[in-house]
């Protein structure tokens, strides 16, 4: 079969936009859920008594989404994009319904696993359909629409999440539970729209499903992510941690062996890695994903813990990120379509992301908001320029017959990076926060005036159960900070922010690594117009 035979008929701009409506509604579900949960996570964790375990809620979703993503690529190549996309929406809705009735932080994380199984297909399948219908040069323009959906969700998500999380009860249930329950009617609407408008030409590709590769991938990834989350509790060099490292490494080695033997039916076809553009795109998605998700997870905590913002206020405060993201995304998409160039936008975007991490790493508890907004503008602009160009790079030299598997693969690496970033950065934060708060609290308690203030009834009541007999601090619930006199709360805020500075500094180092790769390894090629 020739390339001409495998390529779908080229659609006009109006027809592509019609298809996009079906894709964007499904993607809006996943994007909205991510931003809604992020802004409300502190409230959820406080209600379920699991502030330090909150990373499981994010990590569980990302882990299953990461593992499911390559499977969706294969399934859509075999059965078509539309039926597989519909299945992803239904799974996401079922997971959302279960999350709405969770009774503990670990139960919520378990239900997020189901949600992630659906969410893993929503992004990668949308990118795959766009790649099916457009030339490499045109993709940036249409992927800009997709990125704009995420930006819109970034506006609506924190606001909706903040409003709902701020309600003690709504129709007989805690307000935050409606963050998940509202996904069910939205999913039903998405199914109706997809059935009506998502009609994409499909030529079945004969693939065997690589179940062995999927099992090996689980064995390789899950232990490493668990130790990233639990390392601060177990000890990074403890027996359990070493066992997790060994099991994860063995699983990854097994995965490579299985994939080589499986050949074209592999979950991640090894021959794709012989394509330089795909290889570089995969690496950049992974590295940028670490920095991006690490920052997106930590920044709301800074706004709510250090600045005392409510979830609604924290959501509104992120608007500079959203405005910069939407503006740069649409601008870069059009410039790529017009010029055929993408490397300059790729390097500039990752450079801007790196600068944002540097700004965040210098934040203090009393930093002016305009300084925080500067970092947000750099981050929004950086992600707007970088994410779509990395995807365009990875897809640029891949044969159309492999587009589903290839797009799912690069999204797999981005999700994997995001999972590592969310788990590791929160682990670093809470590993350091306890000791740094204890140090500052010890210094403050040496001052008689601070001891007198802390002993006042309302402060003493708020601190009950927080200060342990051994001098350590219980960080499972941060609600006590809202009840404390600001002067008594200051050592806690300074300790949290000190730990966050290390997190953002780590993010800056990771983003700088991606910038070096983009500037020195990515070729300055012209995208094909065919």
From TrEMBL:
<dbReference type="GO" id="GO:0022857">
    <property type="term" value="F:transmembrane transporter activity"/>
</dbReference>
<feature type="transmembrane region" description="Helical">
    <location>
        <begin position="240"/>
        <end position="258"/>
    </location>
</feature>
<feature type="domain" description="Major facilitator superfamily (MFS) profile">
    <location>
        <begin position="19"/>
        <end position="526"/>
    </location>
</feature>
<dbReference type="InterPro" id="IPR036259">
    <property type="entry name" value="MFS_trans_sf"/>
</dbReference>
<dbReference type="InterPro" id="IPR004638">
    <property type="entry name" value="EmrB-like"/>
</dbReference>
<feature type="transmembrane region" description="Helical">
    <location>
        <begin position="178"/>
        <end position="197"/>
    </location>
</feature>
<dbReference type="GO" id="GO:0005886">
    <property type="term" value="C:plasma membrane"/>
</dbReference>
<feature type="transmembrane region" description="Helical">
    <location>
        <begin position="278"/>
        <end position="302"/>
    </location>
</feature>
<keyword id="KW-0813">Transport</keyword>
<feature type="transmembrane region" description="Helical">
    <location>
        <begin position="20"/>
        <end position="41"/>
    </location>
</feature>
<protein>
    <submittedName>
        <fullName>MFS transporter</fullName>
    </submittedName>
</protein>
<feature type="transmembrane region" description="Helical">
    <location>
        <begin position="502"/>
        <end position="522"/>
    </location>
</feature>
<feature type="transmembrane region" description="Helical">
    <location>
        <begin position="344"/>
        <end position="363"/>
    </location>
</feature>
<feature type="transmembrane region" description="Helical">
    <location>
        <begin position="112"/>
        <end position="133"/>
    </location>
</feature>
<feature type="transmembrane region" description="Helical">
    <location>
        <begin position="145"/>
        <end position="166"/>
    </location>
</feature>
<dbReference type="InterPro" id="IPR020846">
    <property type="entry name" value="MFS_dom"/>
</dbReference>
<comment type="similarity">
    <text>Belongs to the major facilitator superfamily. TCR/Tet family.</text>
</comment>
<keyword id="KW-0812">Transmembrane</keyword>
<dbReference type="InterPro" id="IPR011701">
    <property type="entry name" value="MFS"/>
</dbReference>
<feature type="transmembrane region" description="Helical">
    <location>
        <begin position="209"/>
        <end position="228"/>
    </location>
</feature>
<feature type="transmembrane region" description="Helical">
    <location>
        <begin position="53"/>
        <end position="72"/>
    </location>
</feature>
<feature type="transmembrane region" description="Helical">
    <location>
        <begin position="314"/>
        <end position="332"/>
    </location>
</feature>
<keyword id="KW-0472">Membrane</keyword>
<keyword id="KW-1003">Cell membrane</keyword>
<feature type="transmembrane region" description="Helical">
    <location>
        <begin position="84"/>
        <end position="106"/>
    </location>
</feature>
<feature type="transmembrane region" description="Helical">
    <location>
        <begin position="369"/>
        <end position="390"/>
    </location>
</feature>
<dbReference type="Pfam" id="PF07690">
    <property type="entry name" value="MFS_1"/>
</dbReference>
<keyword id="KW-1133">Transmembrane helix</keyword>
